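Protein modeling request. Please complete all fields; requests missing the sequence field cannot be processed.
Requester role: graduate student
Desired output: 3D structure, token encoding
Chains: 1
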Amino acid sequence: MNLLKNTHFNFTMSLAALAGGAARQSDVFDNRKTLYLDLGVRLRIALTPGSTWGHKAIVIYAFGADGEPYPDGAGAYDAAIELRVPSTFQLLGIISAPEGGTSYTWRTSPFEGIAGRFQGILPRYTGIVVANLTGLPFNPRESEHEKEFIASHY
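Delivered output (154 residues):
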């Protein structure tokens, strides 16, 4: 009997000092060798002290492709990205962030990871985009932010 297992590992995405109104993409995860069934996401993001304004939210998207080019101007590596409207990025979640100087933790629900946004099949290449709509920059120390995939596999 094969039981579904989870493996946790960090992914690369520099969130230190991400400005309010800016967005950043992660390195692309290559699933060709691992053949994971799904990737859940867990983030801990710290804001600098101050008063949030505007949407007071952090928006998390996923993108996926079977090869290059990646959608909506995404690249293969951790970098700033400009969000396009309309976008083909898939909404993973929204973190309500009403107060500065606070750390917010968010994760996808069990069995509702990235694959669920792509008709139940995890793309060969996938990545995460974080949009800071809080009006405040993220904490300038990278160690204050956590980025983790939770891979489902047999």
